[in-house]
Design brief:
five-stranded parallel sheet; 617 residues; alpha/beta; 19 strands; five-stranded mixed sheet
């Protein structure tokens, strides 16, 4: 930094830049005594005379304007080019310069490189180093080749999901749609088919959502219309999209005069706390939007993204063992032959057909089977099919899991749930197996098998539906064979969706009257649920007494069998101990006594429970 001097003092030895000239310059050819025309002279040490071969520097002429330097450092000092004297000194041989002048010259602004003697152009030789003589702690790794890694934003440096064994990898079709697959260990039956599972990444931009700006604008306008007015953060929570994406869309709607700010919504600064309401300019546009569809909820997922997620969360190809199944059925007593029948069926993920007399736990077995499929799945709130919204998530059928405090973020348009169990009975019709379109709200409700995706679907009381069994079986033949289901839009267009469902059919009717060979060929596993014998009947009674808090008395149970079963050849059923015990408890409370197994209560319960209606009366 240059030394600051008072105004009017000229620093010694200061040569003005070449582009600074006097107001009336003299050309060098005129031979005048102007100092700018004098040839440069080398600098000499203090006390030395003028350099040989060069004229002495003339004193300043009287009357000439004095060259003054402004106070403080000049802004031109950092960028001025080298003076002719500096360039001459830089080119002079080293032996002709004094030790003071051997300092390197300042960099020249021009692109010309000063020629150096040949012996000075080569770099000094690097001495060879014997690595064996260098201590291990001082050995440094060779420099990494120029492969610069793209810096990862701080918000994306989150840890992998709980139990993950490696970093996230974006592969397949989901790489460009905001989907990712997180490495996870095998969890029960849900993850043994492969080490990868589906984990939806949080969208960073509108392109990551797979939706258009128009679709998001319509969802925002409908959300404000149904609520009257909303804060920015409430809109983002309704649509399950990041506030950064919502804020950009809201700003566009404001420029179009569709919405306006009514005021702040409490503490906080930013667009998320602002309260928005519709303007009169949005009336006609909103009417057209509501005529098309009135869906008001989380933003939908594109169909292709949902299809990829179903494949990664497939219920097929599990590895469920007998040891893992034993504690998944609660207080239900399961025989060995039932374990041996349902275990391979669950590993395959294919359909199974239960048959046998009523009341022996066919439905209860199916409800316990879904607990064997460990691992959690992601279910979307809604799916977008050809600009039509199809709602999939059902808060009755789907059971969300509690979020872990350390779990990474994910796309909130998905719900993290347990594998679902969807049970349909005699109310099932063919129309319920297709997309259900509501003309009032103008969007679709997914059918039962679509809501049971990546889970289990139980057709209970098969053969008692309003539709003929053969027609119902014909509807299931293609999905069971190809794992693909065909759905129909109200426009008549057919849509292909995955059929990744573990189907179970349960009936207490004669199978020969219900199914044919074509159906039996596609349902690979058939299992007859037999009634319990006398020993198993005692075990079930004991379990039910412990569950109801009633002291178990094996003599009273044997009295029940000897007095009310053997004389009339009555068949045992697995549900009878539970039903008879509940009636004994109700009668004991009515009589004001403590519930227990007595002959009077046993006889009263049997008379009320077993009733035979004669057709001749």
């Amino acid at each position: 930094m240059a030394e600051q001097r008072r105004p009017g003092a000229s620093p010694p030895g200061f040569d003005p830049p070449e582009f600074q000239t006097e107001s009336n310059p003299v050309s060098p050819r005129d031979g005048g005594g102007n100092v700018l025309s004098a040839p440069p002279r080398p600098r000499v040490p203090a006390g030395a005379g003028p350099a040989q071969g060069g004229p002495a520097r003339p004193p300043a002429q009287q009357g000439a304007p004095e060259q003054r330097r402004p106070a403080g450092p000049s802004p031109f000092l950092e960028r001025r080019p080298a003076s002719p004297e500096q360039r001459r000194v830089a080119q002079a041989p080293t032996e002709q310069l004094s030790p003071v002048d051997r300092r390197p010259a300042p960099p020249v602004s021009s692109m010309e490189v000063t020629p150096l003697p040949g012996e000075r152009r080569s770099a000094p030789a690097v001495p060879s180093i014997d690595m064996a003589s260098v201590p291990m702690e001082r050995r440094t790794a060779p420099p990494v080749p120029s492969m610069e890694l793209t810096p990862v934003p701080a918000e994306r440096r989150s840890a992998a999901p709980a139990g993950s064994a490696g970093p996230e990898r974006r592969t397949g079709a989901g790489a460009g749609t905001g989907m990712r697959r997180a490495l996870a260990p095998s969890e029960g039956g849900g993850g043994d088919a492969g080490a990868w599972r589906f984990w939806p990444a949080q969208p960073r931009s509108l392109a990551d959502t797979g939706l258009t700006a128009t679709m998001v604008e319509e969802l925002i306008l409908k959300a404000i219309f149904y609520a009257g007015e909303m804060r920015g953060m409430d809109i983002a929570n309704r649509l399950k999209l990041p506030t950064s994406i919502i804020d950009d869309i809201i700003e566009g709607l404001r420029r179009q005069k569709y919405i306006d700010i009514r005021g702040g919504g409490g503490s906080g600064v930013g667009k998320s706390t602002m309260i928005y309401q519709l303007t009169t300019f949005a009336t006609d546009t909103l009417r057209q939007i509501l005529d098309r569809n009135r869906y008001n909820g989380p933003a939908p997922i594109p169909l292709q993204e949902w299809v990829e997620a179903v494949k990664k969360q497939s219920i097929r190809g599990n590895r469920i063992t007998r040891h893992r199944m034993e504690d998944k059925f609660g207080d239900l007593i399961i025989r060995d032959y039932i374990f041996d029948g349902i275990g391979p069926a669950m590993n395959s993920g294919r359909a199974i057909f239960f048959y046998g007399p009523p009341g022996n736990g066919k439905t209860a077995i199916c409800q316990g089977m879904v607990n064997c499929f460990e691992g959690e799945i992601f279910i979307p709130h809604a799916v977008l099919i050809d600009d039509f919204v199809v709602r999939i998530f059902d808060n009755i059928l789907h059971k969300p899991v509690e979020e872990d405090s350390g779990s990474p973020s994910y796309d909130r348009r998905w719900i993290r749930c347990r594998r679902p169990l969807v049970v349909v009975g005699g109310e099932l019709t063919l129309e319920m197996l297709d997309l259900v379109y509501s003309p009032e709200v103008k969007y679709y409700e997914a059918p039962f098998q679509m809501k049971a995706t990546n889970g289990m679907l139980l057709i209970d009381d098969f053969g008692r539906q309003k539709v003929a069994p053969k027609d119902l079986l014909n509807r299931w033949i293609v999905p069971l064979e190809s794992d693909v289901d065909m759905l129909t839009l109200h426009t008549g267009k057919k849509v292909q969706v995955p059929f990744d469902v573990f189907s179970a059919f349960s009936t207490n009717l004669d199978p020969s009257d219900l199914v044919d060979d074509a159906f039996l060929r596609r349902v690979r596993y058939k299992l007859e649920v037999q009634p319990p014998d006398e020993e198993l009947f005692h075990q079930i009674f004991d379990v039910m007494c412990q569950k109801r808090g009633v002291p178990y008395d094996s003599e009273m149970v044997q009295y029940l069998i000897d007095a009310h079963y053997k004389p009339v050849n009555r068949r045992f059923a697995a549900c009878q101990p539970r039903d008879l015990l509940d009636q004994m408890i109700d009668m004991a409370r009515y009589q004001g006594v403590e519930p227990q197994l007595t002959e009077d209560l046993v006889d009263s319960a049997v008379r009320s429970y077993f009733v035979r209606f004669d057709k001749g009366r």
